[in-house]
Automatic annotation (TrEMBL):
It comes from Tenuifilum thalassicum. It holds the Pfam family YceD. It comes from the Bacteria. This is DUF177 domain-containing protein. InterPro entries: YceD.
């Protein structure tokens, strides 16, 4: 793990039982540690509320900020506001177990937990499938107008309907 990602570590061993709060800044240095990802730039804040129990850590995580993505319409890069709310459990067990979707397993010898991978994946999950100017408060006017000239929007055309379907539709309408 790179030294940048160590900043996303919480040492829980010495903390009292109960609630604790942490703030993490997620920036370009963070994203550079994940070369396989599509996000290269961003400025986000992750607010983590941890409830420490005897053999369980509960995390309420809220991530807000913006990341640089490519517009699906004009192919220009732009900053898209994103937000994520999630809940993560970390169970402390006597044996090593494989992590699950929202459950991490720690051994009794572990004294800290690193949230970098979870934050990274959560930010990606917060991205909409389609990304374009005009989404999440961005301006559609920022789309590259030159590029938009090359996009052909299909106008609605009268579609010829098979006459058999029309006959069936009339039957249905008559029965209602």
């Amino acid at each position: 793990m790179g030294t940048v990602l160590k900043a996303y570590t919480i040492s829980f061993k010495g903390l009292k039982l109960g609630k604790h709060s942490f703030d993490f800044e997620v920036n370009n240095d963070f994203f550079s540690e994940f070369p396989e990802g599509e996000i290269r730039e961003g400025a986000l804040n992750a607010k983590v509320k941890m409830n420490k129990q005897e053999n369980l850590l509960e995390f309420d995580i809220v991530i807000k900020g913006e990341v640089k993505v490519t517009c699906d319409r004009c192919l220009e890069q732009f900053f898209l506001p994103v937000q994520y709310k999630g809940f993560l459990l970390a169970k402390i067990t006597s044996e090593e177990m494989e992590d699950e979707a929202d459950i991490m397993y720690l051994t009794e010898d572990d004294h800290e937990i690193n949230l970098a991978r979870y934050l990274y994946e959560s930010i990606h999950l917060s991205l909409p499938i389609k990304r374009y100017h005009g989404l999440n408060g961005t301006s559609i006017d920022d789309c590259d107008q030159e590029m938009l000239k090359y996009i052909h929007f299909e106008e609605e055309q009268e579609v010829e309907v098979d006459p058999r379907w029309e006959a069936l539709k009339k039957l249905l309408d008559n029965n209602n």
